[in-house]
## 1
Amino acid sequence: MRVIYGGTFDPVHNGHLRLAVELREMLAVPELALVPCHIPPHRAHPGAGSQERLELLQLAVAGEPGLVVDDRELARGGASYTADTLRQVRSEVGADEPVVLVMGADAFAGFDRWRDWQAIPELAHVLVVARPGYAFDPDSVPAGLLRTRGCGSAKELASAPCGLFLYQALPLLDISATAVREKICKGLSPRYLLPDVVWQEIQRRELYGFRLPQGNL
Ligand code: ATP
């Protein structure tokens, strides 16, 4: 089984990383791939460049063999459409291996506005992680997909290569990249919201509005 967890990771934080660890263990897979986007089609321009976001993510997972970073969206260039990413993955793994695309409920709420979204369940299962305080509009297309094509447990995902939707509650940390960026920009400390090594690199590169004290360069 291949598990793909995409995002902007602007920057990666402990909420993303804990989710990745919890999922890898729940799905009992040897590794889970974090896939940073190059150009996100559905949101504002990220605060850091794609190469910087990628390198911060690589620092964050170094030494954690169960988590790997897949840079295919940067290598492909252009807008990062998930359907294109999954087509590439599917062509590598063949028709029979289960592929699981992971996203938070906030991301899934806009699923039917993604380019070529109908192709996605033909290529992968979709595992939607509940986010605290986030509820779907019951009349929305994504809520309908969970009702009509939803499955009851992670075990079922192994029984088919694609096509199932699973809504899964997991223990989550209430951290967002927006909150991390805002703290840094205001000169507040984001420590313990993200790995120290990532925070140190953000400071070294003066990302997200952080400025080193003069004379410290
Ligand atoms: P932003 O605040 O900039 O929107 P974010 O923290 O939501 O960023 P993204 O890179 O946009 O991070 O998210 C990638 C994926 O991770 C999305 O599917 C999102 O739902 C999920 N996610 C983000 N933060 C958490 C968290 N604390 N716990 C679990 N999942 C999360």
## 2
Amino acid sequence: MNSSISYPAGLPITARKEDIINSLKTNQVTVIAGETGSGKTTQIPKMCLEAFPDNHRLIGCTQPRRIAASTVSARVAEELGREEGFVAYKVRFHDHTTRSTRIKFMTDGVLLAETRQDPDLLKYDVIIVDEAHERSLNIDFLLGYLKNLLARRSDLKLVITSATIDTQAFAEHFNHCPILNIEGQTYPVKIRYCPLPAEIIEERETVLEHCVAVIRDLFVKELPGDILVFLPTERDIRECCTLLEKYINSAVILPMFGRLHAADQRKIFQSFKKPKIVVATNVAETSITVPGIRYVIDSGLARISRYNVRSKTTSLPVTKISRASCNQRKGRCGRIGPGICVRLYSEEDYEARPQYTLPEIQRSNLAEVILQMIALRLGHPADFPFIDPPHSNAVREGYRLLRELGAIDAKNRLTGTGRIMADLPIDPCISRIIIAAKESNCLREIKIISAILAIQDPRIRPAEREQDADIAHKIFAHPHSDFISLLNIWNQFQIFREESRSWSKLRKFCKLHYLSFQRMREWLDLHDQLERILNKREGFANNSVDASYEQVHKALLPGFLRNIACRKEKKIYKNTRERELMIFPGSHQFSRSGEWIVAASFIETNRLYALTIATIEPEWIETVAPDICKYSWSHPAYHKKSGSIMALENVSLFGLRIISGRKVNFGRR
Ligand code: ADP
Ligand code: MG
């Protein structure tokens, strides 16, 4: 039956089928490197099927992005044409696998989570870690975990696939396993450097206009052909598409980013009578191959998440991509014939960039990493077989934060609190507030708030309609707390949901109120997931009486103690690290906040802005964190009348004075 598996004749990987199958049979680990579009993701699972016809367990294939897991699963299912469910995928909130599934695509996070229930991954015969060059945290976890597991399970096969970037590191990690290089037919690509003229100020609008001018120029002067444009953000892509629609009517304009609807995503694989212009984020760099591209326009930018150890914030700044990424992008147009890659930056700029993007482990919040590692029993990061071990400073900082949150004890063992926190698929600071909410009796409110904090604010402010959006958002706004505003959005949405019971009406509701429908759905999903997990535990039922402002905000504090700030002057606050910050100007709280605030997140551009904030009372801090507050005394004096020693007490939190000169009585002499 397996001999009937067919492979697309044009794909470079097809020519190497025998080598790959041989390597799979004779080696426990095989690294397969090949250019994007050579057929790795879609064809290797089929080759595994063919290599091991007597196996009955799963062939698992991990993907860094949900969007790739679903589109690729659909493609392989179509190519194989087997029974329903034979090829299926599982992502965080949706498991589409069935009993008849043999090829399972999933995000790497899903496989990692499965190691908790099934430490030896006994459901699998073969595991393919796809796109390993991305070096996300999950991939590094998996590669370390699998290294240990392979020693225990000699029957398990591992395939690591990667774009042609630094494959040596993987082979070395797995005892110098073989590397198969898939040589594809590639054509020369001409590079043109076309930076914004120096006298023009680099603002978003001018950059986009420049980009569109370059595309128009290409369109007029070169042979017709499909164009792939790389821009950093969804917003840039939308605006660019609008401009292109206006100026170019002889092409089909297609946006491509992670949150786009599946049906729109699939359009990039269709062929049209007119040439197409696909405007994409870095998903089109290696994850998804847009076929038939002749021209690439590269902004040289991407959003890359980064944890800033100094400000203790994770942000998603638009960053210059590495030279390796620039060249990946360039390579997208050399597959069907000679191509042209226009770089919207100068050659000097290119030369000055780092060769590779740092692996995520070297730029992330290690508290979450460590908590997961402890819960997964992966041991101490110092002993774990990481390809690139994290910096010891960051590890120490991670342990410190976990101790501060009460997730681990002095011996770095999980506490009861920590065990619950590790169960929740959210940042430790956020899971900590759920624990606090149990004590403050405001679980109903905090479950809702924590779910949205773990996602992203659902309120959207489209370019040029910012004011309309602000007006629409006002009806939800609480005068002193963004957290309550979020709660209001949830409540309104639920009322409407019960009345209407139709997704299309809910979509309209979101549109009318400038809310992202997608995020609202994710919010519901994550909230339900949290409820399901918490319902298995004693004492996490919802409060029946609405909680007060004080209850809710006291519960928020233990998770965000480091994010407390007090007013220094007018609009400037000072935080617990003596850094100045401002409330984000677009926020409803911008001109309303009180003397003391707590923030759930920050964004750092030219200065530090607090997002999602609430006004609090400094006295609350002491009641929720007496162990972390520092006490000092001055002016001791003997009080004759009572016969006791009196002094003035100061209380501070990480150096920030919260209570000054409070009279205390040290008792009788
Ligand atoms: P790689 O993983 O090596 O980058 P893929 O296996 O993803 O390569 O892609 C191989 C080919 O299959 C490409 O030409 C790509 O355009 C095509 N392809 C992948 N997914 C789809 C899909 N959903 N519909 C149509 N073609 C697809
Ligand atoms: Mg791929």
## 3
Amino acid sequence: MAQVKLTNVKKVYQGGTVAVQNFNLDIADKEFIVFVGPSGCGKSTTLRMVAGLEDISGGTIEIDGEVVNDLQPKDRHISMVFQNYALYPHLTVFENIAFPLRLQKNPKMSQDEIYERVTSAAQVLGITQYLTRKPKALSGGQRQRVAIGRAMVKDCKVFLMDEPLSNLDTKLRNQMRAEIILLRKRINTTFIYVTHDQTEAMTLGDRIVCMKEGGYVMQIGTPSELFDWPASKFVAEFVGAPMMNMVKCDLIKEGKKYFVNPFGYKLPVDGEKLALLNSRNVEAQPIYLGVRPEHVTLVREKKGASFPVTIEVNEMMGSEYHLHVVTEDGTKLIVRIPTINLSEEERTKMVSGEVINIAFEGKAMHFFSQATEYNLLIDNQYLADKEPLNNSPVKEEAEEEIHQEESSEEVKEE
Ligand code: ADP
């Protein structure tokens, strides 16, 4: 049990790769934190710095108020489970789990204590019946449980897990994910868990740290904060599956009313989103309009702000259809439609070539600046470094264009 605090933690590898930029995070005692992001964004490096397996190039890491920057891994009271759970092939499951306990000196652990710890960990993990087997006689999932058991038996303040499930097949991964949720309840310690899988992050984390290539922290928040209020286009697209639809269009302001104009339609913004646009007095501007596939509504009788789309592909997922559709102007979207409310007749019409009407409800819309890719409705402290989200020349050109437009507007007004 421990609090963990990372302050301005930075990692530059030899050769100059900046793996982690200023990383700031306060982890509460017994909190389950997940680092998520695409491969190479610095998740493992950050975890390994907490573990003491990597030197820190800048900043401080504290565990329970003590700066551990210069402490050896063994003195940090952490346990770690890796993706490649290296079990000793010549040792039984019991001895594999007991291994770290047998290494302990001053004081040496008694046989009774070792037996007690190994058997109770095995019980929690449901591997009691395999204690006398060797690893080669176990399935992948069982081996992973042994690796977790080995990390569990030590007295630790923080439990670190680096992609512990990525070597397992999908079914087993889902099962182990549920087991980790149970395990967490039973061992009740502080967890830091690294994954590239957004589903794992959403289901396991009390809070999620979403990272981007270059070692940037893009957002820290609860799963629902990241899902409902993504701070940037990057987070919006990373969290949620299928990915959020992004349509380039304009945010239009007419007095206190706001509209968006995807595919040549003029759709009103309403509800909470409208109130927020007004309270922040957001300027009219080019945006990415984001709408999650599950928030697109099927409109049965064409009316109001709906528009027709043609179905290209219908993926039947069981309880819902994932419709790949194309708008009149050729924009491709993904729409998730629960099948339960569809009549038989409607189901037969959900096929390639058919036209359906859909709508974007105001509350389901997200607005990201085309220039910065930030959410126009959120103040994001993690963006305080003002590192460009997208430092490609394309973005610079876009910004340049905006400046030029702004200056030509000013000239016109004069
Ligand atoms: P992730 O865990 O998100 O996949 P990593 O933390 O492993 O990312 O890597 C972050 C960046 O640091 C990557 O660009 C990777 O190539 C680089 N990197 C990782 N380990 C080393 C190393 N030992 N030496 C040099 N560069 C490294």
## 4
Amino acid sequence: MQLHINQNRKKMREIGVIFDLDGVIVDTAKYHYLAWKKLADKFGFEFTLEHNELLKGVSRKASLEILLEIGKVIISDAEKEKILVEKNTNYLALINDMTAEEILPGVLDLLSFLEKNNIKYALGSASKNAPFILKKIGLYNKFSAIVDGNHVSKAKPDPEVFLIAANRLQVKPHSCIVFEDAIAGIEAANAADMISIGVGDGDVLKNANYTVNSLTELEISYMEKLLSEVNNHEARPRGIR
Ligand code: BG6
Ligand code: MG
């Protein structure tokens, strides 16, 4: 995807692109899985890859609640706090060796396409480890704004993370495109009045405006169509979700 878009960009309004991190830029779900599984093993119940699907896009705290429910484990709030720290220690040990080689196919081409066409992009992730991961893979300085789990009070599917990102890009929400791999993230993008692109299984991400299996599918003609659609996307009247 090396070409510039054909349309006269002067006629286009300011467009912003927001990326989720886990599952869109890097495949960290496998590390989250191993870190949670270590805890499940300690509690003595089975935590499967299928279970792990339920945690995608979900905050660390909410993920723990889901995990405990799967294992039918009841613990105190103080114990939960300790477990959350333990999970993150497990996770950090696993992601410590991440390098640029783990950037998912199609990401770098898409970023360079956006840069060539002067389209600003931001990160909108639930992960509190997002800055750490972006530094590990060498993308930290590329984003005009990084909004992560440390900056929000409401987790996806609430639109807060994407609305803050749009604000930091100084682009109106309805002029933003969001790339997301999780159902909660698609709901958040839709609630923010943004164009949602599901990255993954179209049957699972059926509420997305569009879906692709991988970012490698984003040919120049696809991006042209997408940008023109955003350009014509009218803001939703206030109060309607
Ligand atoms: C999301 C992941 O991006 O971040 C979830 O999809 C994860 O699986 C969440 O629970 C929070 O991540 P972290 O790094 O703050 O524990
Ligand atoms: Mg994700």
